[in-house]
Specification:
This protein is α+β, with helices and mostly antiparallel strands. It is 30% helix and 21% strand. Helix 1 (8-16) crosses helix 2 and helix 3 packs across helix 4. The chain folds into 2 domains: 8-85, Arc Repressor Mutant, subunit A (Orthogonal Bundle); 91-135, Dna Ligase, domain 1, CATH 3.30.1490.
Length: 141
């Protein structure tokens, strides 16, 4: 990325995902992907956008995160009903969710072994397995 083209990486990422590079998508892609892999909620992204002077509604943030997920740019990790994180790391991996603080941490796929999968109906196949380990601290209140 060159200094006079700060949105070049975001533009390239959107084009690779066949998404039209609207102003809002560009701004949110730059915000999400310029800092390495992370887990964010829509509310966190909305707050970061406001702090960065990006004028975007929370509904637009949700819509954009779901568009990025459908395009394979992100993964949605549902930790409980009504509580989702969006993960910029789309590689094969799992998660630990720390219930006391709401933190989500990556676990390499090689560190989790799955045995004894159930039989699936004819013509279906497993496309991905997502494991979320829930952790709590004995000192957490």
């Amino acid at each position: 990325m060159t200094p006079n083209r700060p949105y070049a990486a975001a533009l390239e990422r959107l084009r690779a995902a066949s998404l039209r590079p609207t102003r809002q998508r560009l701004a949110l892609a730059k915000l999400l992907f310029d800092g390495g892999d992370r887990h964010v909620t829509a509310e966190q992204v909305h707050g970061e956008a406001e702090d960065a002077g990006i004028s975007v509604s929370l509904a637009t943030v949700y819509n954009t995160l779901h568009q990025f997920t459908r395009a394979g740019m992100m993964r949605e990790v549902v930790v409980e009903a009504g509580r989702s994180y969006f993960d910029t790391n789309v590689s094969d991996h799992h998660h630990v969710f720390f219930e006391s603080c709401g933190r989500l941490v990556d676990v390499p796929a090689a560190q989790v072994q799955i045995h004894g999968l159930p039989d699936l109906p004819a013509g279906t196949e497993v496309t991905r397995i997502d494991v979320i380990l829930r952790a709590s601290s004995p000192n957490a209140k």
